[in-house]
């Protein structure tokens, strides 16, 4: 853990070498997030509810999934950009250290520009919560939020790691990310119950985004769920992380490297 | 004591016919359309403590692939590797603690940070104690003058400085084994020489076991007591430098530019003389005639204004070793 912070510190200092670039990209990224938020507000305000979920209830789902997705982009920036390591053969240098390659990868870069996305998600969450104080389960909801964000982060990182692992065979992963990351996390912005059966099945199994917000919300927002779903969801996330990690280990064994 | 044991080591790569796009490349994995390339084909050797081995061969011969299997980066398709008694694949971290690796074409240092920061990070990575770390800084300042540019960002170092910095970084945890992949590539003569004398020093004084790949025959002559030559994934020669010399001699080339068109005379003990106007190129074997003796002969032909000597390429050496029996197989691509 100490090593992780040393390495993260080094990556931030390296980034600060290009101060102007850093400030400019943070600023422009923040601007993008603001417009994104305005768009969403415009859309949400036109609808009263989606299949029995009010805008504020959808806002809770949206806040959790988008904040945890952005958090994933902050802490696991290099997993997200993993194809670079395959294409440029840089992965070799992670395998010659007495430290796990995953630790080295995670510590190489914190994409602080993406913090804007986390703030945006949390703000939407805050606004939505302020309209839901009448719920009998409101305090449950407040208590559960950190767990929900943790669950969301674990699921996002696991999805990212599984997608990155594909690069051991295909080198390129950008196209996969659309299906395995962007699409499911965007879908999780809304209640999973609105999707057709086969898609629902996918969101509970191979791309288990339903566990990050929808499933616990069925209890927390009184949609017929039971309290034990609050335990099941983080458990499912951990299980999925285990699967993703095994797949990653399997991928490393098949790493081909590049000629020098 | 045997530091490295390699038995029947083989690495095959499947090369798929790829279709464009990531989805295409995934589909082609299942289409079964592929050919197998055997980058390393059943090689065996063992390395004793304190040996310095030159690993040579043309591009794509399997040198890098072998080094990558020895260091745990790649998993062998068949055969056995053991480094300090352990499999680099199964006990990767243990082997990494005992191994220093330099890839000449790629730095292991943190590009944007001062060199000192890279050493601080590596020190934590290898759990080095304060005292050992200071000993390291002093020792490698004496040997490689790294103290002169400790505060300079790595991206601003010259290639020669960077290579010295990289070598020191690979040795920070004082590993008994050192793998060097093209350690002198791209360096000028002075820088090459300082790297070589450093490597000789740590090989002789500290009994570090060194395995280096190179394209430079000079590296081999100055450093390696033992040469392993590899071509098409197989070892075609494993012996001391003298064995290599006996088999191929010391092929060299000299180019002389004369003030006037030279008066050519018969020259014994050389292989080939090519004259074009005022230029003369002579291919010769340093075992049979020494360069000064040859120059003395060439001086009689006229007044030289420019003289250049060239060492043979590894490819030339291999060609000589095989004579005219060229390998019919097409050249294998590098590991990919």
TrEMBL record, chain A:
Domain of life: Bacteria
InterPro entries named in the record: ABC-2_transporter-like (IPR010390)
Transmembrane region(s): 20-47, 53-75, 115-135, 141-169, 201-221, 227-248
Entry keywords, A to Z: Membrane, Transmembrane, Transmembrane helix
Protein name: ABC-2 type transport system permease protein
Organism: Melghirimyces profundicolus
Automatic annotation (TrEMBL), chain B:
Residue ranges occupied by any ABC transporter domain in the UniProt entry: 4-257
SMART domains membership: AAA (SM00382)
Keywords noted in UniProt: ATP-binding, Nucleotide-binding, Transport
GO molecular function, one term: ATP hydrolysis activity
Source organism, top-level taxon: Bacteria
SUPFAM superfamilies: P-loop containing nucleoside triphosphate hydrolases
InterPro entries the UniProt entry points to: AAA+_ATPase, ABC_transporter-like_ATP-bd, ABC_transporter-like_CS, ABC_transporter_ATP-binding, P-loop_NTPase
Protein name: ABC-2 type transport system ATP-binding protein
Species in which this protein is naturally found: Melghirimyces profundicolus
